Amino acid sequence: MLPSVIFCSVLCIATTITRAANILVFMPLPIKSHVRGFQPLFQELSNRGHNVTVVSSFPLDHPVANYTDIGPFIDKTRARNVMDLVRMNFITSVQLKWRIGIQLSEMVMSHRNMKQFVQSNSNSYDLVMVETFGQEYAVAMGHKFNAPVINLAPAMIWTSISKWLHVPSTFSYIPDACTQSTSDMGFVERLKNTITGLMQSYVENYLYLPKTKEVMNTYLKYKGWESRPPLEHMLNNVSLTLVNSHNAIGISRPYLPGIIEVGGMHIKDPKPLPRNLQTFLDSARQGVIFFSFGTLVNLNDLPKEKLKIFISVLGRLKQKIIIKWTPVDSNIKLPQNIMTGSWFPQRDILGNNVKTLFSVIDSSKN
């Protein structure tokens, strides 16, 4: 009798310990670096036996056990006109990022596959992970599936999200990302940071959030949505926030226990480079400059005269230049020190120990 009791007890404990959770990841906007920064976490959860469903615009290249992709929800990502960024200052950048968020949200949430997923009642989840940058309505997935929500922040906590997490974002010593300042700010930088923060709060509260609520109330109509709490209430009550940043490459700022920095988990050991790329790096006696403007910016939008000046200046440098860019104008003559391409293994280039590399890239964490 006693051995049977012991066996049943051990079996119950083992069953409890090895119980797999059904986890939903909801990051629908087509911002590749935001998804890729957290993808190792999703894959590791699936490797440990959990069933992970990822709703995003960037499915894995190869199938993984226990990992289900739903998406993409946009046929082609429209690149940002690079001139929008050239003309942008610390004030207009506040308006631009929220406007882009609303435009992309309406494109993604109106997709037929997204509508099918939202209206489906065939799945249940124990945990929901969402990104709320430019897609705050995603937090409603926690209400739909009656599950706790983990917020995934793609970069250091900024002014507009800190209020939902109840952490200070004091303008005097915590720089806003739009100002491109460090924590070592003088009077002018602090003044600029304060103006940016106040403008951002105004734009978000009175212009952006009402539009976000319209997106949520238009496209997130599922069974029981009528009882959904206000958007602000749901954002104020996430269970945990994971931040893709690290104080070693950012700034020191106060966080509450419910906010954890996880920056760097996507970094892997560098792989061997393609032969032509390795040869190009080996020939760089003065080092290499690597330009990558992300997935939403296309240099072909530059006026021809400005593009010509850009290429001419880079061609006079002693360094070798790598640019993630495919010229569409066949008349463009590239200097011998410039290599272009539609894609480069960025991590492998940065991890190459043959030559010193200086990179000029977008703000992503790839």
From TrEMBL:
Keywords: Glycosyltransferase, Signal, Transferase
PANTHER family (alphabetical): EG:EG0003.4 PROTEIN-RELATED, FI06409P-RELATED
CDD domains linked to this entry: GT1_Gtf-like (cd03784)
GO MF term list: UDP-glycosyltransferase activity
Record's protein name: Uncharacterized protein
Membership in a protein family: Belongs to the UDP-glycosyltransferase family.
Signal peptide: 1-20
Domain of life where this protein originates: Eukaryota
Gene3D superfamilies reported in the protein's UniProt record: Glycogen Phosphorylase B
Organism expressing this protein natively: Aphis glycines (Soybean aphid)
